[in-house]
Amino acid sequence: MSWLVTTDNDQFSAKSLEDLKKKARSGELSPGDLVQPPGARDWLYAFELPEVGECFGQSSGSLDLEIRRSPLGKMFGIALLLGGIGLFAGAWHYYQIIPKSADLQLLGEKGMSQDEGLVTATSANIYASPEGTKKIGSFGKDKTIKILDKKYSFFLVESDQGQGWISVKDIAPAYLFAKDKIRKEYDERYNTHRHIAIHQESWKQLEHGVPITIFNFQLQNNSKLDLDHFEVKVKLMNEDKKPLQELVFNIKGLIEKGDTGKIGTLSPLEGSDQKIEYLTFTEFQKRRKLNPVLIKQWTDGLLVELNQIFPDASFKITHAKVKE
Fold this sequence. Notes:
Blueprint: E1 3-6, E2 11-14, H1 17-26, E3 34-36, E4 44-45, H2 50-53, H3 78-85, H4 92-97, E5 116-119, E6 123-127, E7 135-140, E8 144-151, E9 154-159, E10 162-167, E11 171-173, H5 180-190, E12 196-205, E13 212-221, E14 227-237, E15 243-255, E16 260-266, E17 277-280, H6 281-290, E18 298-300, E19 302-305, E20 312-322
Parallel strand pairs: 15-17
Antiparallel strand pairs: 1-2, 1-3, 3-4, 5-8, 5-11, 6-7, 8-9, 9-10, 12-13, 13-16, 13-19, 14-15, 14-20, 16-17, 16-18
């Protein structure tokens, strides 16, 4: 399977990781270009891939920049710093997309905070959801916006226009240019799904013509953050590992840092207008203390009405929200 690469002006594929490294050495691939690994939905900056980052001559971790909030204004001085001292091959990419001004600086009072980003596209679309289907507005180039969350290849941002989702291709997050410790801290916050493991995956299809399947697994939170509201995708496959159907489960509830949590289904009472809910066991226990009879509505595992017969399935965590 190929690696998809998006640059400012082009999109192309690399046949393998070795091909990707070759393009990095030749200059065809720049550190700030976006790379989508085979089978993934998320996009990474090229320098975030360790084996590829080495091919640029100096990895992004060596960018020892200090970014602070300014009470007078939030301007991003990447152009002066990268263009002036040439920290690594490919810095020209950022020199071109970040505004050039004598007033720009990273150190001192002027600059951005680590949870902000600078719009790099001439006109960046704002969407109502991370699927990027419903446009609700746009940002102009050089707009400074606050980053709240990340899902798939979109950042949830906030500005004077309100909240919305913007493509990672259209924004330069400040944390990527901070010191290594800060960069890792914010990367964990915006890419929480990379720090969650799924264990003991199993499923059971009920017999006797009942179109019910129960998926069971545990979520292990390996991050340094307490997380809640998880999105898990289950891909149903045939004997040849070819996809038949994809299911998306949104699971409410807390799993504390370093902890492992079970999941289950809270079914609606018969005849009620309640909707089925998927919860962590911690969330269920919290609700059960307030209403003990909920135990009658609880099922271990994710219960779903499903007519599809499948011999195999794969499980993937695609998003988790940091508990506020």
